[in-house]
Amino acid sequence: MQYAITLQAICDASLKFIDSYSGYPSSVHDARIFRNSDIYYSIRQNPEKYFPRGEFILTDKAYPTLKWCITPYINRGNLTRQQENFNTLVSQTRQTIERAFALLFGRFRRLKYLDMNRVDLISKTILACCVLHNICLDFGDDLIREYVQEGMEAIVENQQEQIINENENEKRLGNERRDALCRALNRNGDRLM
């Protein structure tokens, strides 16, 4: 029997994982995994602790739009040029997490097909690889380009469009923040802050 386990992670610009969460089967929607993750609960309890200067996480459209979680606009054929530009810039910036995943899967090729008898250890193994990935980056692993290229071959994107039922006030604040970022980007010459 084969299992597919999801790895959800947040990374910084240097491709280091800031948070990693694994254990759900890949059939579970990303937003549900996110809502059940430790980081989600922690941020919801005290967003200023995680984002003291108004920072935020960029995600794909599967996630909820919140003040601290910014998603692209869903394109139903009615986006303005500014919104389309915003989506392009979010997509370009989000390539950082894709490179981090590619580097992880290139560096630890066995993650693609972990042959393990104990399913309960699979998520622990994945998280251990995330820690080792960060250690390799800390010590200047010089094979990054090679690993990223190999890892990109192992990544299969599964993007689903689903409307997430979140607290209406949080959704409103997230949408307002995304709109403000969109306007600021267009004023600042297309640079994501």
- Rounded to the nearest angstrom, the radius of gyration is 17 Å
Order of helical and strand elements: EEHHHEEHHHH
Structural class: mainly alpha
Shape: globular
Total number of domains? 1
Task: List the strand order in the largest sheet.
Answer: 1-2
Please tally the helical runs, counting DSSP H or I stretches of 4 or more residues: 7
Strand content: 5-15%
Q: What average pLDDT do the residues reach?
A: 84
Determine the N-to-C terminus distance. 45 Å
Number of strands: 4
Task: Return residue spans where pLDDT drops below 50 for at least 5 consecutive residues.
Answer: 155-166
User: Main beta sheet: strand number and arrangement?
Assistant: 2 strands, antiparallel
The helix content is: 40-55%
Keywords: Hydrolase, Metal-binding, Nuclease, Nucleus
InterPro entries: HARBI1-like, HARBI1_dom
Family: Belongs to the HARBI1 family.
Domain DDE Tnp4: 2-134
